[in-house]
Amino acid sequence: MTVQAPAAPQRYSFVVASNRLPVDRVIDPDGTARWANSPGGLVTALEPVMRANNGAWVGWAGQPDLQLDPFESDGISIVPVPLTADDIRMYYEGFSNDTLWPLYHDVISHPQYHREWWDSYVQVNRRFADAVAEVSEQGAVVWVQDYQLQLVPRMLREDRPDLTIGFFNHIPFPPYGIYSQLPWRTQIIEGLLGADVIGFQRLADANNFTRAVRRLKGFPTKGATIEVPLIDESVGVRAHGPIPEGKPFRTVIARHFPISIDADSFEEMARRPEIIERARQIREELGNPERIILGVDRLDYTKGIAHRLKAFGELLRDGSMTAGEVTLVQVASPSRERVEAYRQLRDEIELMVGRINGDYGTIGHAPVSYHHTSYPRDEMVALYLAADVMLVTALRDGMNLVAKEYVATRTDDDGVLILSEFAGASDELKRALLVNPHDIDGLKHAILRALHMPRAERRTRMRSLRRRVFEHDVAAWSSAFLAVLTGNGHAESLQADILHDELDEDAQPETGPMTIDV
Ligand SMILES: O=P(O)(O)OC[C@H]1O[C@H](O[C@H]2O[C@H](CO)[C@@H](O)[C@H](O)[C@H]2O)[C@H](O)[C@@H](O)[C@@H]1O
Ligand SMILES: O=c1ccn([C@@H]2O[C@H](COP(=O)(O)OP(=O)(O)O)[C@@H](O)[C@H]2O)c(=O)[nH]1
């Protein structure tokens, strides 16, 4: 009998790792399996970068116990990492979404601390690190994404010191007073410090992280740079080659790189006649109200959906607007539905929607048009075009791509963006109407101001917002990050207002520079 050796895995020079793949394995009710685009801002953001670099994407296919070989999807090489039903329960729904997610979002919901969830998180991070190591060629650039994989940089550095390792955190990094609750706070910091560059959405997040490093590890930090001693095995250093005299440390950069969207593609869609026609139809289906307010969110307690419903309901109660004049369209896309906090939230939101519609609706018209679904992108663009006011009331949000997508679609320089100051996007989108969503009166005031804003002011504000989003699109985001990661970037070549704080010119990865198409 001839035994064939398994084929050597294909290796890549650029590897992205994220919890979710850019495609989801979906089983239809008739039992047929197919691949669908998976939801969420991360996927939207990284797709164009992957295509430009012909790299590989390592991640989970969205279903339990799927053992799949690597395959190609839309020109992207996909390397699936299997998760068992127990991994999903403990690593994904548990530690990622019921411990880290609430902890990193201002403890809006109570984080649950369970030691078996942590053990599962360590195991799954190990599986991801092994999968990345297996497909990365010598000296490859690896870009690890998000809070689900914070231990991967250190694990990779231990096993593959030849790699250049970047990490980007898509969600906020909490202030030390909150972060320090985490029983595994030191291990997470050590995990992240395995990277050469650690990116955050906001300057405040990067500052929170470097403060945690000082408090927990005592390593010196200066601006965006952290000196990690080469003899400290807790951060997986094991110097690659001899320790240089006079520099017994690696320099890790921790700074902000605000993520963005593929603005051109949203603008292109917004100009398509069929999408413009669909926007008109949406208005008609809603009974042609004078004004449409739009909210689009995953059904997540961080998004402040209850706060916006409260403000909207009170405006109707006060008689400041009538249900016939203004309709609130709320898209609440299903998310993490097996996590208890998310189930409770759904009940709470749907009760509020029912009350408002019951109190202020008529037979022919509901003031809140509520949709518990996830729409494809063309429908999203039509909704953005149909909306006079976009309402983003996040209580805490890493970035909020929806705000940027709304701006990118408004080729008519019209529409008003109301934006929470607790969303990362508010650092850039200063000409939005910025609100504190906890201040219900302030929120009501902003809604009325948006509804009555003169055309000239809407135009001036929208033009300024659009300039920002088009100048700082997702390509600028990934170029800025990869330029710093690969040592190809000089401070002056990066957008001054993205990277305006101090950048240490000596701060280069330990491995030799490697070229990547950014
Ligand atoms: O994968 P899920 O658990 O279904 O969640 C979807 C994604 O949500 C999070 O998005 C974050 O990243 C966005 C892009 O940077 C940012 O705009 C937003 O503020 C963040 O919340 C999460 O970080 C992703 O990992 C999830 O895939
Ligand atoms: O029905 C929906 C709702 C949302 N989205 C997309 O999901 C992403 C949400 O990203 P955001 O950063 O606003 O929040 P996240 O869900 O990642 O926390 C955006 O690209 C939206 O266009 C979508 O395609 N269909």
TrEMBL record:
GO terms assigned for molecular function: alpha,alpha-trehalose-phosphate synthase (UDP-forming) activity; glucosylglycerol-phosphate synthase activity
Keyword ATP-binding: no
Gene3D superfamilies: Glycogen Phosphorylase B
UniProt entry keywords in alphabetical sequence: Glycosyltransferase, Transferase
Keyword Transferase: yes
Involved pathway(s): Glycan metabolism; glucosylglycerol biosynthesis; Glycan biosynthesis; trehalose biosynthesis
Listed Pfam families: Glyco_transf_20
Enzyme class: transferase
Documented EC number(s): 2.4.1.15
Reactions listed under catalytic activity: D-glucose 6-phosphate + UDP-alpha-D-glucose = alpha,alpha-trehalose 6-phosphate + UDP + H(+); ADP-alpha-D-glucose + sn-glycerol 3-phosphate = 2-O-(alpha-D-glucopyranosyl)-sn-glycerol 3-phosphate + ADP + H(+)
Entry function: Probably involved in the osmoprotection via the biosynthesis of trehalose. Catalyzes the transfer of glucose from UDP-alpha-D-glucose (UDP-Glc) to D-glucose 6-phosphate (Glc-6-P) to form trehalose-6-phosphate. Acts with retention of the anomeric configuration of the UDP-sugar donor. Involved in salt tolerance by producing GG-phosphate from ADP-glucose and glycerol-3-phosphate (G3P), an intermediate in the synthesis of the osmolyte glucosylglycerol (GG).
Protein family according to the UniProt entry: Belongs to the glycosyltransferase 20 family.
Subunit structure: Homotetramer.
NCBIfam families: trehalose_OtsA (TIGR02400)
Protein name as it appears in the record: Trehalose-6-phosphate synthase
